[in-house]
Every structure is written in C-alpha cells, then in structure tokens.
Amino acid sequence: MNDQRNNNEQDGEARKKAPDRNLYGHAKIEAFEKERLARRDEHQADSIEHNRKTERSHAKWAYFSERKTRLEKIYKDSEARIEALRAEMTALEEKKEETTEALERLEEVYGEGAKEGKEDAEVSKKYRKFLDMESNELGL
C-alpha cells in the first residue's frame, strides 16, 4: 500500500509539473485567435491605406477634371472676345485708311508754297508715322 501511495504522490507531482492537456489546447486556441485578430487588423490597416491611396489618386483626377472644365470655359469665353477684337481691328483698319486718304488730300488742299500747308503736311506725316507704329503694335 505504501508503494501505491508513493505512486499516487509521484503521479500528482508529475501532473503539477506537466501542462494540462486542456490548458495546452486552450492556449493553442488563444494563440490562434490572437494570430487571426492580428491578421485581420493588418488586413484592415492595408485596406485603409489602399483606400487612402485611391482617394488621393482620385483626388488628382478630380483636380484635373476641374481644371479642364475651367479651361474649357475660358476658351469658350475667349472665342467671343477674339471675335469682338477681330471686328474692332477691321474697324480700326478702315479708320486708318480713311485718315491716310484725308491726310493726303490735306496736302493737296494747301498749296506747296503756303506756310500753313507745309506745317500741316509735316504734322500729317508725323501722324501717319504714329498710325503706322500703332498698327504695327496691334499687328494690323
């Protein structure tokens, strides 16, 4: 009986030293669950980062589309302004032709020997040069 008691005591001590199978299985489950949660958190972090990147890339395209619409509007507005400037340029060209003709007639009206005619002719030449400079600057 003594031997049996010794065996039972030894078995009890061995059980205390060795991990319990249920505890070991439970620890495995806990470790697996922790690993699964860590993978899930990592996946969520990756998907959040992916969403941030795609939002940034979409934001870039949104910027370009806004800019494109602004440029299209400016272009449409500028077409009307260009047409108005072209009409104004043709009117200026007509006025230039009229003034040059009037200045040429002015020289004829005054006599060659008349002092006033010479002064007016010089003024008309200066005015004609001025008109030529203006038309060159405007691209006429």
Termini distance? 130 Å
Radius of gyration: 50 Å
How many structurally independent domains?
1
Number of strands: 0
Q: Low-confidence spans: pLDDT under 50, at least 5 residues?
A: none
Shape estimate: rod-shaped
Global structural class: mainly alpha
- SSE string, helices as H and strands as E: HHH
Can you walk through the features of this model?
Keywords: Coiled coil. The termini are far apart. α2 runs antiparallel to α3. This protein is mainly alpha-helical. It has one domain. The protein is about 90% helix and about 0% strand.
How is the topology of this model organized?
Elements: H1 2-17, H2 21-109, H3 115-138
Helix pairs in contact: 2-3
Could you write a compact summary of the structure shown?
With about 140 residues, this protein is an all-alpha fold. The chain contains 3 helices and no strands.
Give the tags.
mainly alpha; 140 residues; single chain; coiled coil; 3 helices; 0% strand
